[in-house]
Amino acid sequence: MAKAKKAKRATQKKNARSASTKRPTKAELKHIPWSSIDLEDLNPLLQRQFVVGQNIMVARVLLKKGCIVPEHSHHNEQVTYILEGALKFWIDGKEIVVNAGEVLTIPPHMPHKAEAVADTVDLDIFNPPRADWINKTDQYLRGGK
Fold this sequence. Notes:
Elements: H1 2-21, E1 40-43, E2 46-52, E3 57-63, E4 68-72, E5 77-84, E6 86-91, E7 94-99, E8 103-106, E9 112-116, E10 120-127, H2 131-134
Antiparallel strand pairs: 1-2, 2-3, 3-10, 4-9, 5-8, 5-10, 6-7, 6-9
């Protein structure tokens, strides 16, 4: 009995993981616990998980204090909501610290850089979904050029 439950749970986790990263061709209802999605290690200070809908993506990003997200831009609109900690952004000629409970909206094509000023958990929402994250070609986060 316990063996069957364990196998079922492993199958559910695998299905949730693949459902979370594939971009559906049509909108569909999904219920995915964050605990069912593996944390992706991008570098020693940065991890993430994400779920992809038809036209939107939500990512749970974990940054250790001192983690730098190098300057980059993308055609995606971005909304960043800080759940814990704080991120300092360099954006549009300004330095903006976004603390827990605060939101930053970033228009498409606007270059930005960030640093975790404390251990931080944030939710990033993108429209459309980030193809470079889905395809793992986001070398700026992985220490590449």
